[in-house]
Amino acid sequence: MLHPHRVSYYRVVRVRRVLVAVEDVDDYGFYLGWNRKREPVSHTAEPYAAALLEDHLAARSWPHRPKSGERWRVVVERIRDGDLEWLCEAAVSVQVINERIATHLNHVHGRACRCGRTEAAS
């Protein structure tokens, strides 16, 4: 694989994550380009991870049929020399309308957040 990544799909049940599936993909869609340090820029990683979830749920490849209002987490890690390197985590809500599945990316404040929000010091 040229661009190996591990994608883990979790359904959120109450406050607990339930691992539904894990897949290794050879995909470069998580990146927009390269920064000056020659490391990938992952501005598009979270929306792309949400799109992967939508594709898999729509393909009906899992025994679980999604319901409107379900919450999911998609964790993407880059596989480098056999080690996993965290890339992003996407919080996703699912809507089912006339058996068509749509996802909505929920904003999560984290390491890659660029929203300008500052957390109050505790």
TrEMBL record:
It comes from the Bacteria. This is Uncharacterized protein. It comes from Longimycelium tulufanense.
